[in-house]
Amino acid sequence: MKVDSVVSGYYETTAQDQKTAADADAFKTQLEAAAASQDTKSLKEACQQFEAFFVNMMFKEMRTSIGDGGLTEKSFARSTFEGMLDDEMSTKISEAGGIGIADLLYKNLMNAYNIGETDSSDDSGTEGEAGSAATGAGLNLLG
């Protein structure tokens, strides 16, 4: 057993845990600020941030189900690259309409915090592509 792999694995796990905690704290802070200021744009951004966090966690769990092997060896560099790739992909997915979590969360938080929709330009199709595809296919999950 290589000592380098044990040490780098420990630091990798610690760094991932710290990043996850920082992401959760950032979401909480942005959500509280948006609720206090009644800012719909900040609330929408916080919801997209949460969706990106959720999608990123799904990507990480999916990667754990894939066995080692393939073209490149499992290494610290490879796992760092995969983590950065997952971060960027999850952010882009959320910005492009995502899987619908941000929109549902946004609607529910608007009601929970009694924030009125004053500017319809902030609401760029609250169903998103996934929601409209599900509705179009006869799978209206929202009732």
Mean pLDDT reading: 76
Tell me the overall shape. Answer: elongated
Structural class: mainly alpha
- When the domains are counted, the total is 1
Summarize the amount of helix as a percent range: over 70%
E-strand count = 0
Largest sheet: none
Order of helices and strands: HHHHH
Give Rg in angstroms.
19 Å
Number of helical elements: 5
Q: How many angstroms does the end-to-end distance come to? A: 55 Å
Which regions are unreliable across 5 or more consecutive residues at pLDDT < 50? 119-143
Can you offer a commentary on this structure?
- With 143 residues, this protein is mostly helical.
- It has one domain (3-114).
- Helices cover 71% and strands 0% of the residues.
- It has five helices and no strands.
- Helix 1 runs antiparallel to helix 2 (40-64), helix 2 (40-64) packs antiparallel against helix 3 and helix 2 crosses helix 4.
- The longest helix is centred in the first third of the chain and has 35 residues, at 3-37.
- The radius of gyration is 19 Å and the shape is elongated.
- Residues 119-143 have low confidence and may be disordered.
